[in-house]
Amino acid sequence: MQSLRDRAPLIRGIITKKDCRVLLMKIECYISMGCGSEPELRKNLADAVREASPGAEVLIRRVSDEEAARMGIKGSPSVFIDGVDMQPAEMEGFG
């Protein structure tokens, strides 16, 4: 899975130093109870947010397999930026 840090240039293209508008992102991350990638996710998020959108709202939440299924979350961790899932649709692997 491509990390959020790798996707930062895509995000950075939205916000430039010349741009006088303030665009704030909402980043939601969902992690299964047994997933060990939280430390790496937090580091990648911190790097990407610092570079691309310092005012971004970030939510990191642990969810059970049942919650993930109800929410339609396919993998762990799952990252949504402004409601868009950053994981390709064909990939699965929650748990």
Largest sheet features: 4 strands, mixed
- Termini separation comes to 15 Å
Number of E-state strands: 4
Shape: globular
Q: In words, what does this structure look like?
A:
The protein is an alpha+beta fold and 95 residues long. It has a domain at 24-85: Glutaredoxin. The protein is 33% helix and 21% strand. The chain has helices spanning 4-12, 38-52, 65-71; strands at 26-32, 57-63, 78-81, 84-85. A 4-stranded mixed beta sheet has the order 2-1-3-4. The radius of gyration is 14 Å and the shape is globular. The model is unreliable at 1-16 (pLDDT under 50).
Keywords:
95 residues, alpha+beta, Glutaredoxin, 3 helices, 4 strands, 21% strand, globular
Quick recap:
By secondary structure, the chain is α+β, with helices and mostly antiparallel strands. 33% of the residues lie in helices and 21% in strands.
Write the layout of secondary structure elements.
Layout: H1 4-12, E1 26-32, H2 38-52, E2 57-63, H3 65-71, E3 78-81, E4 84-85
Parallel strand pairs: 1-2
Antiparallel strand pairs: 1-3, 3-4
Helix pairs in contact: 1-2
